[in-house]
Specification:
Elements: E1 3-14, E2 17-28, E3 32-36, H1 43-50, E4 60-68, E5 71-72, H2 80-86, E6 87-90, H3 101-111, H4 119-131, H5 135-138, H6 151-164, E7 169-173, H7 181-194, E8 199-203, H8 207-213, E9 216-221, E10 224-230, H9 231-236, H10 241-247
Parallel strand pairs: 3-8, 3-9, 6-7, 7-8
Antiparallel strand pairs: 1-2, 1-4, 4-5, 9-10
Helix pairs in contact: 3-4, 3-6, 4-6, 6-7
């Protein structure tokens, strides 16, 4: 297994308050890594470090390294826009643009100069919707508003939008927590398919979901990485009592 993301001694502060403490973790290429732990434990904060979204918060200070393909993304010479283009983000609530299904997908690739309007753009839109498992459901309504789709379809539209800019890492912050069980099942099946091509990190509160989709699982508590191992080890034979207590429902 090849390491895609290497996290070394990562600390994060919101002003004076420290939120992440000395996080060290290797995330493997073309695998799904789940981040679990009680609310407020630092999972989403850590996830947003990987594509530098925390930079948008004035009070945030970060120490340590996140090395992706042998380059520290926090080096001064790094283009943050280029980092975010390579590392797609899917949020908890589906957030399609107030545009057509087609324009939701085409907007960023055109803006970034990946394609121009016309046949190449049409093909990219179709491929992205295929890859997100949505093409057959929307192919006859590409010019209808993306906001008119169901919640599960909107989330897959957001995934297709992420895929359209050709990332190599996809971050998902509780991508199914607002969805019904059938939509959740479709997104989970999609994740398992996407990991053939992409490295995926997912924040989830759903223990069963982590067990179903993740190759590796990281357990966070109070801003610290308590345990990180293969998912089966974490759920069947964790080395830390805190991990066992959380997984068995004693707290959280």
């Amino acid at each position: 297994m090849k390491t895609k993301i290497q996290v070394n001694h990562l600390d994060l502060y919101y002003g004076e308050k420290q939120a992440l403490f000395d996080i060290n973790m290797d995330i493997n290429e073309k695998q799904i890594t789940a981040l679990i732990g009680p609310s407020g434990c630092g999972k989403s904060t850590f996830l947003r470090c990987i594509n530098r979204m925390n930079d948008l918060i004035d009070t945030v200070n970060i120490d340590g390294e996140i090395i992706i393909d042998s380059k520290n993304i926090y080096d001064p010479d790094v283009d943050v826009v280029a980092v975010r283009k390579r590392i797609g983000m899917v949020f908890q609530q589906p957030n399609p643009f107030p545009k057509s299904v087609y324009d939701n997908i085409a907007y960023a690739p055109i803006k970034h100069g990946i394609v121009k309007k016309g046949k190449a753009c049409d093909e990219l839109v179709e491929q992205s919707l295929h890859d997100a498992g949505l093409w057959d459901e929307v192919k006859d309504g590409l010019h209808k508003p993306g906001t008119a789709l169901s919640g599960g379809q909107q989330q897959r539209l957001c995934i297709a939008r992420t895929l359209a800019v050709k990332p190599d890492i996809i971050l998902m912050d509780e991508p199914t927590s607002a969805l019904d069980p059938i939509s959740t099942q479709k997104i989970e099946a999609l994740m398992l398919d996407l990991k053939k091509t992409y490295t995926i990190a997912i924040v989830t509160h759903n223990m069963q979901q982590a067990g179903r989709v993740a190759d590796f699982t990281a357990f966070f508590h109070l801003g610290k990485l308590i345990e990180f191992d293969k998912t089966k080890v974490i759920f069947v034979n964790p080395s830390q009592k805190q991990t066992e207590d959380y997984i068995t429902g004693r707290y959280g």
